[in-house]
Amino acid sequence: MNTNPLEEGGRAPQQVTTTELENGEGGDTADKASHDGKSIIGSSSIDDAGNHHSRTYFLYGAEQLNLDNYYFDIPVVFNSAVQTWIHYFLNRGRGFFERYSARSGRYAPLMGQILEDHGLPRDLIFLAMAESGFQDKAKSWARAVGPWQFMSYTGKKFGLKIDWYVDERMDPIKSTIAACNYLTVLYKQFGSWELAASAYNAGEGKVNRAIRKYNTENFWSLREGRYLRSETKNYVPKIMALAIIGKNLKAFGFEDIDFHEQLDFDEIDVPPMTDLVALAEQMGVDFEELQRLNPEVMRWFTPPNVSYYKLRVPINSKAKWADVVASGVDLKATNFRRYSVQGQASTLRDIAKKFSVAPYVLEELNGIDAGARIVKGQAIALPFRADHDLKNNMYADLYERPRKEVLARSKYKGLVKLAKAQGKHLNSSNRYTVRRGDTLWDVAKKTNTPLYSLIVSNLEIINNRMIREGDRLIVR
């Protein structure tokens, strides 16, 4: 894919004169006048949330850049804060921008269309770019998840299902729809995209308190105060910088971006508790591709508490599913690992805690109440594949999330304890990105880094959880 998927929004207006643009017709002229004098039409107050995408903004003050595109459908300025981010993405953060842009090929066309379908500016895709770099499995230190970085509470509030089986924050389509609904609410509340984006980052309450504290609804004025966090102050300039570069790749020297193939798929309805490994085998499709198409599915089987699950499969493979159904093969997940209770009697809830599994999951698998007594020797089904090797605890998840209680962590305890005591670390400039299936042993071998050094340098991660796909580990 060679076409830039980021440049669709903010086409040059056909019936807006230069005078109207310069005078900020229909916009907040105070915003324009208060920041850099000739920056841009400011945030406009639009009563009809269904017409957000119809407004076009012209980028003033950047004529010396000789850009191909000066038009946006969100407010964009060219001031020192934005220039700082542009400088970052052209230099130290250039690799990040290249990866963000490459991934945009897969997701930006679909996300942009969903934004337009909801009456929102297509250029809001740069908010997702700032949030996650278009990574569907992105996770922040604050436990925000997915391409739009929803917290659990907010995701559920806007209709995303989040439980042990699925996390729809990772679904690029459903999470984008939820983001559209959330951004519409924020825009109606604050009346400008700068403030709406700030509230998306910091929360409505924080922005409302800042407005009351400084008695202004101008983002750039709020930014000058101390109340908003540095992250929020930099959030809007970062989005604007990404938009300016993203819609002018050639002007900034990004002519050779290898855009990922656009997301394309068929959908099939599969029964609850369908073994996805077996399904992939029967359909003759790659299991990892099935995972990539359904990042929200957290397990190797579909949820049990649904009448059917709408699963994405590779394009042109829907007929294969029809053949599988016609064959009558049973794909219900049954290949569960069994745990034989040792020692004194316990409850299903105790076992769930031991293996870091939600109690209701074991209830559904075993047909036993969570508070029921489990006697010694009784076998309990665990939601892990029986043929999946769990002997090494330090691995990136393949079929399910890693759990420190499940896996044999004892071999590392001494090293972790020693690392905590000594507090040494390696040069943080060298990093390795964890791939699916990687263990600490794998990373140590691939990077020629002693296991002890690897643990010492990444103690903040390893002391709290297993390594996961996408983690960036400090290596030699």
What does this protein structure show overall?
The chain has 476 residues and is mainly alpha-helical. The protein has 4 domains: 18-246, Lysozyme; 265-327, no CATH class; 336-385, Membrane-bound Lytic Murein Transglycosylase D, Chain A (Roll), CATH 3.10.350; 410-474, LysM domain (Membrane-bound Lytic Murein Transglycosylase D, Chain A). The protein has 20 helices and 10 strands. It has helices at residues 18-23, 29-34, 80-90, 94-117, 125-132, 152-157, 172-190, 193-202, 204-214, 219-224, 230-246, 276-283, 287-293, 318-327, 348-354, 359-366, 410-422, 440-447, 451-457, 459-462; strands spanning 57-58, 71-72, 265-270, 309-314, 336-340, 346-347, 373-374, 379-385, 431-433, 472-474. It has a two-stranded antiparallel ribbon with strand order 1-2. The longest helix has 24 residues, at 94-117.
Short description:
The protein has 476 residues and is mostly helical. Helix content is 41%, strand content 8%. It contains 20 helices and ten strands.
